[in-house]
Each structure stands twice: as C-alpha cells, then as structure tokens.
Design goal:
single chain; 704 residues; 8-stranded mixed sheet; 19 strands
C-alpha cells in the first residue's frame, strides 16, 4: 500500500470521515472489527492511495453479506394481530357451543331441523364481527391520507397503528437532529483567543479558492459577510492554487498584494497544518518565534478539547514568499513548508430549529428519544445537549461489545446516546429494547448502516434522500427531515388505534351479549326470539351504523400516552361489560312476557317486533357508552358522523314495523307503552353501564 491509503467506511459506520489503512500493523484481537487498520470491507470506497490486497472473504462470507443475511427475519411480533386472532378463536369456541345449544333447543321445540340450522347460522353471523377488516383498513387508510398531506409516504398501513403504540424512537444524528451543514463558530490563535488575523487569512483562502468549493468555505464566507467584516479581497490578486486532496488534506493559495508582496495561505486538517509549520505567530506581540514541541502539543490538546465539544477544527497557516516566485507552481508541494502557524477555525453542524421542539412534544406524549449513531461520542453528545436530550448515560459501540448479556441490556435501557455503533450493534440495541424492555420501537435512519435496524424496528422510518436500501426496508418515508411530522404521525396512530379498539370492544360485547340473550330467550320461550331474516336484518343495520367509527374523535388525554394491545385487557373488558347488555335484553324479555302476556301466534310476532327494536337500539347506542371514559352525551359527545349515523339507524329500526318492509319481515305495530319502557330501559342501561365503567377504570386504570 502507499503511505497514505484512505478508505471511506461511511456506508458501514455512518461517519463522514475517512480511515487510513496500512499493511504495516498487527491488530489486537480485542480491536473492534470496523476499527481494524489492515482490513478493507466490501461496500466501502477508496478515497485516495493505492495498494495490493489479499482477498480473505467473498460472496456470502463478507461482512456486508453477513449483515444483510438477517434482513427480513427480524420483524417483531405484532401483538395487536396476535390479540385479535386470540379473541377470534374465543368467539369461534363460543359460537360452536352457543350455536349448537340453540340449534338443539329449536329442534326439540319445533322439530324442524332445516329451520333450526338456518336460525343457528344466523346467530353465528350475528356473533361474527364482520366489519373488523373494513373498520381497521379504513382507519389506517384515513391516517395514511392525513400523513400524505404532511408529506409522508406510508408503505405499510399497520405502521400507523404501531406509531400509536411506539414509546421509544431511535434516531440517527446527522441530518435528523442537525441541519447537515456546517456553520463557523470561532477563530482562535494558538492560545485559544479570538484573533481577527486568523479569520482574515482563512477568509482569503476560502475566497480565492476556486477548484473545489466545500461547505466549510461557504461557512467562512457567510460568517465574514454576516458579521460585517471588511477584509477587502479586491486589494489581493490570486496567483495560483494547490487544490485540496485526501492525501494532503489541505488547500493552499498564493496571493499578491497591491504592493507586489506575495503570501501563501494554507488551511486544512489541524495535524497536517502543524506538520508544515516551523514558526508560530504571537499575534498580540506582533512577533514570530520558532514552533516548539510544547507549542505543537498545546495546540493539539486545544484541538482535542474543541473536538470533544462537538466542533470540527481546521488549522490556518501562512508564509511570505519572495516576489520572484514563479507565477505557476505546477503542483510543486515543496513550497508548502516552513510556514507560520496562525490559529484554528471551528465549525459546528447546528441542530434544526424544529428538533428541540419536536423532541419535547414527543416526550410529552410518552415517546423517549435515543440517539444511535456511527459518529463520535463527543459530537453526538454536543448535539444532544443542544436539542435537550439527556446525556448522563452515554456509551460507544466498542464499549458495548465488552459487556456481558445482562449488563448489555441494562446499559441499553438506561443509555440515551449510543455512538460509534456498527450496523449489527444498532440491530442488537433495537432488539434488546423490544424483547427485554418490551418496548415498541421506532427507528429513523437513512443510510446503508441503518438497514438492519430499520428492518427490525416496529416502525422503520427513512427519508426521501436516503439510500435505496434504507427506503426499501422502511415502513414510512418522510419527504422532509422534520421530526414534527412524526409527532403528528404518533397522534394519528393513537387515534387510529383508539377507533379500532372501540369497534373491537363494542362489537364483541354487543354481539356476545346479544347471542347469550338469544340463547336464554330460546330456552325460556321455547321458540326463536327472532326469525333468521329478522336477525340478519338487525345485524346488517347494526353493521351500517359502525362504518362511521373511523371518523369518530378521540379524547385528548388518550393521545398523550402510548397505547398498546393488552392480552388480558380485552377478556376482562368482555367479562365486565357483556353481562350489562345481556341484562337489558333479559329485562326486555321479562317485561314483554309478563306485562303483555300474549301467548298467541300474534303474540309471537309482537315479541319478534319488540325484541328486534330493542336489540337494534341497544347495539346502535352502545358505541356512545364504550367510546369514552366520561359520561356520554353530557361530558363527552361523539363526532357528528357518529351522531348522525345513530339517529338514522335508530329511526330506521323504529320505523320498520310500520312500513311495507315490516310486513314482509312479519312485524307488527308496537304500542306507545313499549317505547316508554325503552326510554326507561336505556336510561337505566347508561346509568348502570357508567357505574360498571367507573369501577372497571378504578380497578384496571384504563378503558379503551
């Protein structure tokens, strides 16, 4: 290899700098893989230099291939889908038991097997939450459209729901928390004091440099112009330039004044500039002395301290040339020697104005931020301090590798800043938070080195400017790098989750309560409380009423905390609330049986009409009790689509017995006394249901 073989490993580490590789070194076994100086990795690029290498791994055995071999295998368990599947199995079991009992009861009372089976199938249909796919997908699609208006592309609809459950967001530093551009901070002499002479010569170098403009040059020019300095570049004339390259890591320009004095001005990596200098400028004393080892060490220490503060440091030097120097130096780099060290210029990649506010808003909603970056720890800590992320617990990737299994998980749990992470370490951190910490994790990244974590996270988020592989494995793509978009996404995710849970809970308790009531009524009456066509019609109207649930509003308190599916929560919710529905149905049964006492065939039709009307109104009104922790219609009112749907379906249910359709359905007119009973019944239902709700919340600390 050449003496300076520079390799960019940014695709693996995320660091924008370059790494020097050499064959003349024997690495220790404890050295982290990506820190090895004598190994080059597939997928990285050579910046400068040349050499001959020995291939030790190819194809699937390379680090890059090994890293991506786990892609597609890391997705965590979807507890929502798993919970819904478990409830479905319970409903199927209940269906088999109840429907079998109903069919047998009907058969032994009527001895009509086909009619009994038909009624049993109708009951099974009534028990099935048919609208679940429609409600879930409509809610998710509605959230996706809203996020599209915020310039987000949602690739996986379920990611919106998972955003509502997300309680940890892992983010990369570069371009997410920061503007991904440099601004100049200070100009310091060799003793760390601000000196205008340092800034003037740095400005002249940046102003006259033409071959390769870099963001640092723009930052210097912007600083000078915006702060009102007048360095009068028109009084200088450019003679020649030695452009920047990654071997020399510096750029030099030769300038001439109006008095025909010539100067060489050089700026670049601090170590390189120090190596060029033989003298040091005492600017206050207007004197130049020899550049001693003590001076060099002091400047290097100052550079390390500035770097630890998260600043990028470059050195500035100059020297006076003899006026007879040739106008063209023709790449003669020997002229860059015996220079005078002037000082340093510092730069910083500033945090975005919106980052601090967005992180604060996420924290308000119970989402903790962790920074997972391949950059240096000092730089990551500096940025995190600027945006308000706590930096009391920080660690680097090499240090993580030294920890045992238990200590690793404990450290990942407490650390807020994890720097110098490799792609596989980012994956381990995300999986630790998911599997050991039981967190729902979002990951925001845009590089190849983020792909494993994006694939493993519950919600993978990338940006439009990210590499193609990162966007491939992301669930959501941001067209703008703005964390405030994620705050809106979290809110919409929680609204989507809330409306989905409303449907699941109200449909299960209403259907289950209704079917149990039918079973009891069938055993008590010795005939079907509803004919199959009446039961199917009732179920159809009830399902129509539920279509508007995705457009319902959600209480503000609900979106303030992460929401997740509880494996034990839904069964307990059913056990507490389904009996309330069944109780109301049984009260209706007893009232119509003992108050009207009509046991003729006309009385059977009357009971069918009464049971149909009460059951439909019950299933239509139940949404208002379930949708909120507060008192319905008094402390909290549903959205206007839900109110309108309730009124329309209730009106249809009351009117059907008086229409030609009612005659086809074999209904009869109901007396006004029955409607008076229904008013009392539903007042009692909402009162008793609210008492049960408050006791449930008191015990289990939540509702939806």
């Amino acid at each position: 290899m050449t003496s300076c073989f520079l390799n960019s490993q940014s695709s693996l580490t995320g660091e924008s700098g370059v790494t020097e590789k050499t064959a003349d070194i024997k690495e220790d076994q404890s050295t982290p893989l990506l820190d090895l100086k004598n190994i080059c990795f597939m997928g990285t690029s050579v910046v400068s230099g040349s050499g001959t290498g020995l291939i030790v791994s190819t194809g699937s055995k390379t680090y890059m291939s090994t890293m991506f071999s786990n892609i597609g295998k890391q997705k965590p368990t979807d507890y929502f889908e798993k919970g819904v599947r478990r409830i479905s199995y319970v409903l199927i079991a209940v269906m088999l038991i109840v429907v079998t009992a109903i069919i047998l009861t009907c058969y032994f009372t009527s001895y009509d097997l086909s009619q009994s089976i038909l009624f049993g199938i109708s009951v099974a249909c009534a028990l099935t939450p048919q609208m679940l796919p429609l409600i879930v997908n409509t809610s998710l699609a509605k959230g996706a459209l809203a996020m599209a208006r915020d310039r987000c592309i949602v690739k996986s609809l379920t990611a919106i729901r998972d955003m509502g459950s997300m309680d940890i967001l892992c983010i990369d530093k570069t371009g997410t928390l920061t503007m991904n551009r440099a601004i100049m901070i200070n100009y310091l002499d060799s003793w760390g004091l601000p000196k205008e002479k340092v800034l003037r010569f740095a400005f002249l170098n940046a102003y006259f440099k033409t071959e390769q403009k870099y963001p640092l040059d723009d930052a210097i020019l912007a600083y000078v112009y915006t702060n009102g300095y007048r360095f009068q570049p028109s009084k200088w004339k450019k003679i020649d330039e030695i452009p920047f390259d990654f071997v020399r890591r510096r750029v030099s320009v030769i300038l001439e004044t109006e008095s025909l004095e010539r100067f060489m001005v050089t700026k670049g990596a601090l170590e390189e500039i120090i190596n060029l200098c033989s003298f040091i400028d005492h600017i206050d004393q207007n004197a130049v002395t020899n550049f001693s080892l003590e001076d060099q060490q002091r400047i290097l220490n100052m550079g390390e301290e500035l770097s630890y503060e998260g600043l990028r440091v470059i050195g500035v030097a100059m020297k006076r040339l003899q006026s007879k120097t040739s106008d063209r130096i023709n790449g003669d780099e020997a002229i860059e020697s015996e220079m005078i060290f002037l000082g340093v210029i510092t730069f910083f990649d500033p945090p975005k104005d919106s980052a601090k506010q967005a992180l604060w808003r996420l924290a308000e909603k119970g989402v903790k931020a962790k920074v997972l970056t391949g950059d240096s720890l000092s730089l990551a800590v500096k940025v995190c301090q600027e945006v308000g992320i706590r930096t009391t617990h920080v660690i680097t990737g090499p240090d993580l590798e030294l920890l045992d299994h238990d200590l690793f998980h404990e450290t990942v749990k407490s650390a807020t800043v994890l720097a110098r992470l490799t792609p596989t370490q980012k994956l381990r951190v995300v999986q630790s938070l998911q599997n050991v910490g039981n967190h729902v994790v979002g990951f925001l990244g845009d590089g190849i080195n983020d792909s494993l974590a994006l694939d493993a996270a519950n919600v993978g988020i990338s940006v439009d400017s990210g590499v193609s592989v990162a966007k491939e494995f992301a669930d959501i793509i941001l067209l703008e790098k703005d964390l405030n978009v994620l705050v809106a996404g979290v809110e919409r995710g929680r609204v989507t989750f809330a409306n989905t849970m409303k449907y699941i809970k109200l449909s299960v308790i209403a259907n289950l309560g209704s079917v149990l009531s039918i079973l009891v009524a069938t055993l008590f009456l010795r005939y079907e409380p509803l004919t199959p066509k009446q039961l199917i019609t009732q179920n159809f109207l009830y399902n129509l009423n539920q279509i508007v649930i995705p457009w319902d509003k959600v209480e503000e308190d609900y979106v303030k905390t992460p929401q997740s599916f509880s494996k034990k929560g839904l069964p307990m919710f059913i056990l507490w609330n389904a009996p309330v529905c069944t109780l109301c149905d049984l009260i209706t049964l007893l009232f119509t049986y003992f108050y009207y006492r009509d046991f003729t065939s006309e009385g059977v039709r009357f009971f069918h009409s009464a049971w149909f009307t009460e059951g439909l109104l019950m299933q239509t009104l139940i949404i208002h009790l379930i949708r909120t922790e507060k008192i319905p219609f008094i402390q909290e009112v549903a959205s206007w689509p839900v109110i309108c749907s309730t009124i329309i379906i209730s009106a249809i249910g009351i009117a059907i017995p008086y229409t030609p359709i009612g005659k086809v359905m074999d209904f009869v007119h109901l007396p006004f006394s029955y409607y008076g009973f229904l008013v009392v019944l539903f007042i009692g239902y909402f009162t008793f249901g609210q008492v049960v709700k408050r006791i449930y919340i008191l015990i289990y600390k939540n509702w939806l």
